[in-house]
Amino acid sequence: MNSKEREFDREKIGSIIRAKDVQGAELYLKELPLSERARLLSRLNEADREQLFGLLDAEFSAEIIQSLGEAQSIEILESVDADLAARVIDLVPSDDQADLLSGVDHEVAEQILAAMSPEEAVDARELMKYPWDTAGGMMVTEYLAYRETTTVRDVADDMRSNRDRYANFDIQYVYVIDAEDRLLGVLRLRDLVLARQDERVVTLMIRNPVSVIVTAGLHDLYQLFANHSFLGLPVIGHRGELLGVLERSAVEESMSEEATENYLKVAGLQGNEELRSMALFTRSRRRLSWLSINIVLNVIAASVIAVNQDVLAKVTVLAVFLPIISDMSGCSGNQAIGVSVRELTLGLVKPKELRRVFFKELGVGLMNGFFLGLLVAAAGAIWQSNLWFGAVVGVALMLNTVVAVLIGGLVPLILKRFNMDPALASGPILTTITDMCGFFFVLFFASQILEKLV
Amino acid sequence: MNSKEREFDREKIGSIIRAKDVQGAELYLKELPLSERARLLSRLNEADREQLFGLLDAEFSAEIIQSLGEAQSIEILESVDADLAARVIDLVPSDDQADLLSGVDHEVAEQILAAMSPEEAVDARELMKYPWDTAGGMMVTEYLAYRETTTVRDVADDMRSNRDRYANFDIQYVYVIDAEDRLLGVLRLRDLVLARQDERVVTLMIRNPVSVIVTAGLHDLYQLFANHSFLGLPVIGHRGELLGVLERSAVEESMSEEATENYLKVAGLQGNEELRSMALFTRSRRRLSWLSINIVLNVIAASVIAVNQDVLAKVTVLAVFLPIISDMSGCSGNQAIGVSVRELTLGLVKPKELRRVFFKELGVGLMNGFFLGLLVAAAGAIWQSNLWFGAVVGVALMLNTVVAVLIGGLVPLILKRFNMDPALASGPILTTITDMCGFFFVLFFASQILEKLV
Predict the structure, then answer these.
(1) pTM for this one?
(2) A23 to chain B nearest CA, in Å?
(3) Digit-coded pLDDT (tens) for B166-214
(4) Which residue of A has its CA nearest to B314?
(5) What is the radius of gyration, based on Cα positions, of chain A?
(6) Do A316 and B309 touch (CB under 8 A)?
(7) Does A363 touch chain B (CB under 8 A)?
(8) ipTM at complex level
(9) If we measure between CA atoms, which residue out of B399, B406, B400 comes closest to residue B356?
């Protein structure tokens, strides 16, 4: 807890790099708080960054890479020499290896794999085959497995003689396998503490342990861990052979990544994996892809105003209320989307339960629509000294609030039913429809009682 | 992995509840997939839910409560009898006890605490004193600690005789304390496997182990765990006495909770902790609190249109472009907010680095503004067969895109500097300012060349 809020010193690090001061570089980085290390690396240009990593030993470089966010790690691995990247990747845990190599550009990944130590490269290629959201994509291959005839003393001897290699293993369990690597049983480390030295693991182990198949999906795995208190589970192949260990934390991390991604999509914040250290053109292009879709939808919505211009020409003040009604309905609808996406993620609602969501949202829509409509009606009526004017904008907002919460509540369910991503597409669909409806309500009601408004 | 996608059967569970079928209830719930359990519980009315929990033993009830999301657990604990709630809470781990008790209504919490077993209640009250984002608020009090003179054999004997009580402890380390409970050292469980039975823990332990003070904050703790590979750290009080154990997973979970909350706030999705099983009035009120603020900001922004009505009266078609420009600028600005909030959370940018963010955003704003502005200008010019009209709407959108990304990029930094929550306040500030600027640009430019547009 003695990491003071030290900031990095650009000149200091610059002179360390120029002097190729190996010890100085390691010492300097070790003393920086973690977030300052990340910030420093995001500020160096590619040449300096490569030289700096050249000064560090691979172990410390691997530690740094693991402490950074994935987007930043990938950016760095892509920019440094493939040999350097390979030495670093050799040292990170197997599940991170696969994630990082899948994240970098395909050609870069091949170069790094070619430069890695052959066994590590084979393992990494193996893990890269599995999608990130399956047991294979989340498992680690660092585990302890012994044949059934092994004694407790043998296990302790093995652990003693491989102390260094096992140092970073997260050992909770010891696995027992047969001559063909098939999983037979599992022992908790604490059971080894309690056992006699000459006992064989086969007599201590829990037989037929719960295991997961390498292709099992994230949501099933999450349920399994939520239902039971396992810290880790063995992952087996189709022959029953032990392939790796899936840790609870890896599953929880993946679920929370998925949830965060969903929220980002609901918010239309896809630009979010952006780092300001990326090139201007990249950052601009990433953001434009979403903006371009949005502008088309906006034009579609605004066409409702375009075809009703004659009403606006007579009652120009209505133009003041169009953006208010569009924005307020968007907010109401987004709240409903947020609730539906969350309930879908947690499994609290099924995609087919449209009726339930319809009535639940109808209630909220009527109450909030009534309240907001009354507010806007009062403001409009008082400002324009015209009750009819207030009625037009108030009723329009009321109706459109109901429309917005219904669409916001139902669209995620419908998209999910057709196997589309509810988080990504619901927002744009919502705002386009509610804008069109809102503009229509205002201008249509106004056109019906035009003589009362002028 | 054999949990089929079974759905709950409302009639079946209804008849189990009416028949007070204790075995049937447990069997039925155990066979349901986790998400179906959650959905079932969210569909039962309070009376049925209370009767159902009355049929289950406390241990299974505790398991169910832990498998639900926090919002749903709290809803259930508030609705069942305090004695039942107390029996359940007695059985969940200490850090969850404190979280749940802090989450329920204050009066309900007192009733539950009064009904809990006295030792558990004292522990829970102790933990409730610590804010959720400190070491004290995240630690568990389930750990193994032994005096320095204890031998490895004694430890194994103690573990053997308390096998049941320790069954759910997440034992990675064993702690060594002096007669006044002060922390002296720590042993990894695997070191016990490797040790001789008659060795004393004092000779095996790592002295002066890294520990954290009970008041340490989430961000410092996250850095500490990110910098080192500890699975858990001892938490000490100001005298150096051992108070609990902080697990890596608890810190990571809290950080991800904080990040999710931030994204929800950026998106204005505060209605998100809502469950549709809550009462209509509650759901409506939760959503209205945010909508009410939003409507005031909307009225402020729309006032710019109100004071420039004379321009609109002459060129009504401008009203078609006002919502487009407002919405597009909002999108561009929100992207910049997303990037800034994320960079602030990861520590990649300091609140004082306004200059850097200004120039980084200026680049993107100019590029995207130019592209979007050109698009809208072309559309406007062709539609109205008037180059001047295209120029007005195009330049307005271009300038306003620059304004939007600058505000979106900078406001989070400024709010952070004044110790305000950047995620919560940035969005409303952004849309209000960009709406005002956007409306102003369109109507002001139009007023300057009015004769060319009519």
Answers:
(1) 0.74
(2) 19
(3) 876 777 789 999 999 999 999 888 888 888 888 898 888 989 898 999 9
(4) A313
(5) 30
(6) yes
(7) yes
(8) 0.74
(9) B406
